[in-house]
Write a structure and sequence with these properties.
- The structure is a homodimer of 333-residue chains.
- Chain A has a domain of 232 residues: UDP-N-acetylmuramoyl-L-alanine:D-glutamate ligase, CATH 3.40.1190.
- Chain A has 13 helices and 14 strands.
- The first copy, chain A, has a 9-stranded mixed beta sheet, sandwiched between helices. Chain A has a 5-stranded mixed beta sheet with strand order 3-8-7-2-4, with helices on both faces.
- In chain A, helix 3 crosses helix 11.
- The radius of gyration of chain A is 18 Å and the shape is globular.
- Chain A is of the alpha/beta class.
- The interface between A and B is medium-sized, with 27 and 27 residues.
Amino acid sequence: MTPPAPPSIDILALGNAIVDVLTHVDDAQIDALPVNKGGMTLIESITAAALYSALGPGLECSGGSAANTVVGAAMLGARTAFIGRVKNDQLGGIFTHDIRAAGVRFDTPPATDGTDTAMCLVMVTPDAHRTMCTHLGASVELGPDDVDEAVVRDSAVLYLEGYLWDPPGAKEAMRKAIRIAKDAGRAVALSLSDPFCVDRHRADFLELVDNDVDILFANESEITSLYETDDLDSAMHSVTPLVKVVTITRSEHGAVIAGDGDMHIIPAEAAVQVVDTTGAGDLFAAGFLAGWTQGRNLHDCGRMGAVAAAEVISHLGARPEADLRALVSDHLK
Amino acid sequence: MTPPAPPSIDILALGNAIVDVLTHVDDAQIDALPVNKGGMTLIESITAAALYSALGPGLECSGGSAANTVVGAAMLGARTAFIGRVKNDQLGGIFTHDIRAAGVRFDTPPATDGTDTAMCLVMVTPDAHRTMCTHLGASVELGPDDVDEAVVRDSAVLYLEGYLWDPPGAKEAMRKAIRIAKDAGRAVALSLSDPFCVDRHRADFLELVDNDVDILFANESEITSLYETDDLDSAMHSVTPLVKVVTITRSEHGAVIAGDGDMHIIPAEAAVQVVDTTGAGDLFAAGFLAGWTQGRNLHDCGRMGAVAAAEVISHLGARPEADLRALVSDHLK
């Protein structure tokens, strides 16, 4: 097999294209809802409207897990692209503007009919944790035809969010992209996204991890959910032989990275004030992959992830506000 | 004349119904645009799209000057209502949700065709000052039929933003509302909004101040623009005989209030960090009017305005995030 040509894109992400509505709530409001505190619940259009009208004033901000990751990676100098579906409505215009303005290539044509651009109601409790309700909207229109073979072949890393296993067409799009990437000798990265998402798609995710994933991103509850165990160590022993690299984020306890036959303990970066944890995992992946595609060692990749995550939890919203590149050069001297 | 029945609404505002797009820019970007730094420039639909595409990622937040004021006043316990026009699109839905969620009565039916809900591109420079470009959109559809006579008669204060003089139908709506309010013995309050807006409508504003306005809100550059003078003292001497109360906000120098034959010097409240001055004048008016409709003295009304303004400049966006009522009871012990 001839070695693949050098890619012109560092990270290509496939994900749900979502605009977040960020609101402050108290714990009683979360308790009264049929949702998993700290998790992501899928909601239908009608429920979305009813829930929205019960919430306080919001701030709107482009989101989407994998989209947040490529935006963060782009801010760290990575060459990035995104595949995901919006509708040609106002929120779709906002999503498109924001991801392109961050330097991410985004060419998926918007849906011209059907449901609106996806919206995620992000409810932030006083403990700074977020509970999310997502109306997938136009994201469910994503399908294999949206995956441009040339772009996948031209990307060093194909990054997939587990959430994309929910819309049926998107699953096919992911499988197609994975086949192309493997065939071209590129790395496949997967984020497990959410423990309840892992519950919904465990068999598929296990099969993916067994066969296709090179770099796996998860937090403690996601990886233990995947292997249906309470014990992180046991889950780590199950997963490490199967992938090249696995990163486990552990909130204020930092992260653990297993790869290259070694284990790295990454401390959390001190955040001045934790305001909203939305996007912490997405930005860890952003920093890690930006480092990885720059050829950095796993420890430094992890530290870049920790720096990017600390930035995004210091304010409302899942897109970085500060100059990530400057933060990384300050912290990784 | 029989005295008016006690009103069931404290403050009814008429204003442009706008969603803000907040972005960080540097001074060079502002210098390159045909806009007034620190001011508000009206832009057409095409220009709006071109400017938007040249800006970085944004945060979306409901805005509109008079709308910000009634939201702030509602958070301080005032009974409030708002008249303004959105379209029945996604941004219109966001505006409607946010103002109602803040406790403001808002019943103006949305436009079902024509241009989109108004959008304001708010460009925040590193000095925390904001420069605004507004696409009036559906706001221009506001007209006298939207002014419900019973609601105006039932409101202690009719609050008008000078910006509303730009859309032609809105001007008629304002004149109708003023006639009803005066006839019912209610107070009419006007914000001069912006020195360039004063330039556009000086003759009308002078006539309003002469004949109809009871409470006038302005900053230094607006009041000096109105009387075409460089001297604040001279402008104050021109305006004080004409209105019951005039409040002049002076940024970090606080405010001056003339009324009841007396002059009050209100110090600025110390803001922890000035992040974005958007909404400072709107929230000063909110605090002032909330105090005024509670029967407080002019000094305390001014201090309530200063507290509300200090909150809104401590973060991005023109709607308060903190508990204004708690802040006021802390500061006005």
